[in-house]
Amino acid sequence: MTIFLQSLDYQLWHIIVNGPRMPTKTIEGVVSPKLENEYNDNDFRILQLNSKAKHVLFCAVGPNEFNRISSCDTAKQIMLVHEYELFMMHDHESISDMFTRFTTIINSLKNLGKSYPNQELVRKILRCLPKSWTPK
Fold first, then answer.
1. What's the domain of life for this entry (predicted)?
2. Where in the chain are the domains?
């Protein structure tokens, strides 16, 4: 996927990994979002790249995953939701390493404005454990 996105436009992968940069303005040292009528050509290019990245990701997933990610605002959020949905404990991975990986995904999603209730997170952790954990 990385090579495909980079072949379309190298900045697509950069936007997915780092998230989009929303157009801002600085007035007297205060940074604030630009109004849509204040956008310049570069601002529109950045916004178009995020839309292009979202489009490529929407086309790359099946209908079940599309339903889960269609409400995401950014390509980075789509990738993180995808990681969350496919999250599983790896073979020979300790429970603490698995939980650290899980927490990183959850915290990144929270930073982008997408959060899950604790009850759902606990269920997700229990579902991702391998069969060897069933007796425990």
1. Eukaryota
2. 1-63
